[in-house]
Each structure stands twice: as C-alpha cells, then as structure tokens.
What does this fold into?
Amino acid sequence: MKKIKKGDMVGRKSYGKDIIFIVDRIIKTKDKEIAILKGLTIRIEANSDVEDLELIEEKTIQEHVRNFEQRVIKRIEKQEKLLKENNYPFRERLVIYTGRILHIDGDRRYAEKSHRYYKKLQLNAIVKNIPERKQPILIPNMLQRYNPDILVLTGHDGMIKKGTQFNNIYNYRNSRYFIKAVEQARKQALKKDLVIFAGACQSYYEGLMMAGSNFASSPARILIDFMDPLIVAEKIATTKEEKFVTIQDIQQELRDGTRGISGIGGQGKKKVLMI
It folds into this structure.
C-alpha cells in the first residue's frame, strides 16, 4: 500500500470518503501518524489517523474538480448575463463604481479562484492569501493600505468535536483567528460602514457576529460552499448605496441558505454618477 504523504488527495474511509481532502501535513506521535486535512473544494479543515485515509483515484479527482469548475463558470455566466440585462439607459453618460472588496483567504488555491471570479465579473477586488492564524496580525496594515468597502475573511475551519460545545471557541479549528481579525478590523477600519463577511465551514457563527461581522458562517455548523462568501461580497459590491442588503436578499443564491450563512445585513456599495 502506497504511503500517504503531504499533498496527496485522500478520503476518510470511516466517513465513506464523502469529502476529497488534500493532506496539508502529517504529525507523528508516539503511537501513530495524524494527517491535517483541507477540503479540495469545501472550506473545511479536519484531522484523521493516516490509517483511515485512502488515496483517491485521479479520474475521480478530475471529475470532482471539473464539476466544481463548471458550477463556478455557470455562476459567472449567469451574473454576466444579468449585468447586461440590467444595463442602464444612456450608460455612456454614467460612471459606475462598485464597492472595493478586500478578500483575505487562508487557502492559496481558493484565493486564486476567488481572484478569477471577481475579475470575470469586473469587480474592484484585491485578493490576498494569508494563513488564518496570521490574519489578525496583518489585517490592520491591509485595511490602511487598501481601505476597502467590503472585507472577506475566510479559509478553512471546522469543529473539533462536532455537535457539541458550540460556544467553546477552542472547539473550532480557526474561528478564534477569524474572530480576532474581525475585532481588529472594527478597530482599524477607515470606513465605519465597512461590511464584513467572516468564517468558513462549521465556524463559530455567534462569536463572529459578536465580534462585528455583518455576515458570517455557519449558523447550523454545516459545510459551506466555496462560492458563498464570494456571492455575499458580490451582492454588496453591486447593490446601490441607497439600499440595505439583508440575508433574505441573498439566501436563495447560497447553497444552503441561512443554514450556511446569515447575518444582520449591510449597506450596498455601488455608486452611479451622472457625467
């Protein structure tokens, strides 16, 4: 049997290989080896005994990634079509500014995909790959540098003991870093009406909201879709500043609605100026 190593695509046998993970690192203990795993297309972090892991066939991986990419492309095409259909009359006499997005993602691959998504939709977005644990440290400088209208803080997360200790911040793999980053953002933001999305799979929703998020994951402690944070940011960025965006305005576009994402809402950031 081939030895499991960092970078391998694997599934957990005890879970029926329901999620494809990438092995982020392997920790050797006295008795066994523990793998730290990150979802290939889902924002979850987990750990597993190496003995419980099985390599996923290349054909299965390619099909999984292809389906994922097709969902992203379908979403982009839908939004591009809506932009054309909602084109303003006399557009040549208008200047349109969509809200500036600063998206900080703990996963390099997701950061790259997010950048392509925003670019395709011609949104004003800066995307940076910063590990979750470093986000609270670096967020003040990032806010001063880019002065965004919308801040997205995400990456990977997960409950250590699923289904219990919902209010124990240490029962979440990365929620404490997201929470600290949100707190720092509220202290350092140049714009007091900064709209913040924070969290990943199974994140400590209540803690993120108390820290100052407008939207967060995950009320039902479920896995969220890769695109959910992007959809929230896009909606805020492309909604006129006169309108307040609620979760009800967005929930139908999210994979699991308000079970995955919820919040108090935020002001739209699009400005339309006559020239």
